[in-house]
Structure formats: structure tokens, C-alpha cells
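Translate structure to sequence.
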């Protein structure tokens, strides 16, 4: 089974392109902090190149920007290629099957796309918060 789940922040704006067959592809990268610190007390960060296809590609390109926190689930894909100097290289990509946007609409770096992201409920207005009395007895 080839399945990966990552939560991290975009390191750059996503790049939306199209294949010669007209299929949308979005390339983006995320920085993921490790759960532990190194010997120097610093937390290490890993950087992952991600690829989204078709409708997901368009959605990621439309609603994300550098700095936005996302959860990506998908699979790991290895690519072998030869660079300009003739050296054989291997690249690792995360092929996204699902991307969830974790930065709140009014969070950091969201001003660039806040107008295009959905923001209202089905009645067209923002939901109102109701006061909650937590001093009453718990019924169980």
C-alpha cells in the first residue's frame, strides 16, 4: 500500500499548467515539521514536492498561496531522469488525491484569495454565535 498523509505550509505559490492533452496539473511544495528536535534543539523540517491533477489542481491553484497550511493525502511517486550533465537522478513527488485547506479564511496570507473563497452559509449571511452558559449542571 502506498499512502501518505502530510500537514504543512506551502513554500511557494502553486503553479498551474496544462498538459498537451488539456489536463490541468498543479505543482506545489510544502514544508513539514518533524515531531522531534535534533541534538542542537532545533526542529527539523522536510520539504515535499506535490502534484495535483484535474479539478483538484484547479482548486489548489485557486484557493492556496505561499504560507497557507494544508493537509495532503495521496501517494509517493519516484521519477528517474537524466539531468543536463547526463547524471541519473531520482525525484520524489507526492501525488495528491485530497488537499484540505487548514488556514482559516481570515488567517495569515489569506487576504490574496479571501474574496474568491466561499464564506457564507446557504442563506447568504454569516452565522451568528449564540451565548453559552457553562455554569449550569451537566445532565449526566
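Result:
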Amino acid at each position: 500500500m502506498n499512502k501518505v498523509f502530510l500537514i504543512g505550509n506551502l513554500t511557494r505559490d502553486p503553479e498551474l499548467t496544462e498538459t498537451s492533452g488539456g489536463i490541468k496539473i498543479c505543482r506545489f511544495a510544502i514544508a513539514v515539521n518533524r515531531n522531534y528536535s535534533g541534538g542542537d534543539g532545533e526542529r527539523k523540517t522536510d520539504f515535499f514536492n506535490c502534484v495535483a491533477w484535474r479539478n483538484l489542481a484547479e482548486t489548489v491553484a485557486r484557493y492556496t498561496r505561499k504560507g497557507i497550511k494544508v493537509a495532503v493525502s495521496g501517494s509517493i511517486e519516484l521519477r528517474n531522469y537524466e539531468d543536463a550533465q547526463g547524471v541519473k537522478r531520482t525525484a520524489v513527488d507526492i501525488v495528491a488525491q485530497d488537499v484540505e485547506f487548514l488556514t482559516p479564511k481570515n488567517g495569515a496570507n489569506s487576504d490574496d484569495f479571501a474574496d474568491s473563497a466561499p464564506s457564507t452559509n446557504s442563506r447568504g449571511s454569516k452565522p451568528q454565535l449564540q451565548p453559552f452558559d457553562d455554569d449550569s449542571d451537566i445532565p449526566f
